[in-house]
Amino acid sequence: MNLAFYTRYYGPTNTSSYKIPDLPSIKYNCYYYTNNLDLLEELKNTKWIGIYDDVETINDGGISSQISCTMASKKIRCVPFLYDEISKYDFLCCIDSKLPKIDCTFIENLITTYFINNSKMLLIRNHTFIEPNNENKYNVLSELLEALKHDRYKVEQDKYLKYIARQTDSGFKLESDNHCQTGFIIYNMKNLIHPFPKSTNTKKKKKKNKRYIKDINMFKNKLNRLRHQISLNIPIKNKNKMINRINFIQNKINILERSKI
Predict the structure, then answer these.
(1) What's the rounded mean pLDDT across residues 48-52?
(2) In the chain, % of residues over pLDDT 90
(3) pTM of the predicted model, to two decimals?
(4) How many whole angstroms separate alpha carbon 79 and alpha carbon 53?
(5) Cα-trace Rg, the chain
(6) What CA–CA distance (Å, rounded) separates 92 from 107?
(7) Nearest alpha-carbon partner for 86 in 126, 123, 51, 129
(8) Taking residues 214-238, what's their average pLDDT?
(9) Interval 96-142: pLDDT, tens
């Protein structure tokens, strides 16, 4: 079975979501996407395949940071076919980094039942705590009210209300027979509709490559200046901090060089 698992984390180190979950499978490749270099380093001591995703996030720990990091993690969950490492698989299982260990055989059975012996496009689980009403219907406003208990959703409540209003104006209903959450999704990549095909524009690729080369040269110049200061054997304030900075810049150079087209 041409299957892979993946999870993701975007943001600072000191949050409850900064986790490395148990490996869901030793039979299939398991990818971990992140923009956090500390996490990427920790993943080297596991069987996860760490992938650096150069996405900028606000990492100050405030509400803006929570919103920024939450939004950054949504793209790979919604459009996995845009990511080279995982787009080559027939089936993908996306799991939240906070979920308990997934039973690999259970996933294989679901894929066989709904994708191989059927033609479903994706599987997504029912919501774990939103309850139906007396008519056994789920109302999207129930989840909104639950979400507004958290500051990162509360500050953007007008945006959510306007979005819901646009959808109901377009003919969608507030109530439905099912209500799902996206912490666990299985994709049938063979049947998945690709609304955003990858660009084949050669000029764009060359422009992007030039930017990578420019950034690499800039970081290499910084690295050489720092190493030269240390090589002079003169007293340097916060020398350990400077060495950490050198290691950080070297990692950045390695990442950029791997990202070149």
Answers:
(1) 95
(2) 34
(3) 0.71
(4) 14
(5) 22
(6) 10
(7) 51
(8) 65
(9) 887 888 889 999 999 999 999 988 889 998 888 788 888 888 888 88
pLDDT in the model for residue 90: 94
Is domain 3-127+183-188 classified as CATH 2.40.170? Answer: no
What is the model's pLDDT at position 261?
Answer: 46
Q: Secondary structure of the chain in the HEC alphabet?
A: CCEEEEEEECCCCCCCCCCCCCCCCCCCEEEEEECCHHHHHHHCCCCCEEEECCCCCCCCCCHHHHHHHHHHCHHHHHCHHHCHHHHCCCEEEEECCCCCCCCHHHHHHHHHHHHHCCCCCEEEEECCCCCCCCCCCEEHHHHHHHHCCCHHHHCCHHHHHHHHHHHHHCCCCCEECCCEEEEEEEEECCCCCCCCCCCCCHHHHHHHHHHHHHHHHHHHHHHHHHHHHHHCCCCCCCHHHHHHHHHHHHHHHHHHHHHCC
**What gap in Å lies between CA 120 and CA 191, rounded to an integer?**
7
Q: Which of 25-29, 130-134, 231-235, 240-244 has the highest mean pLDDT?
A: 25-29
Token pair 């949050």: residue: 15
Domain boundaries, the chain: 3-127+183-188, 138-178, 202-259
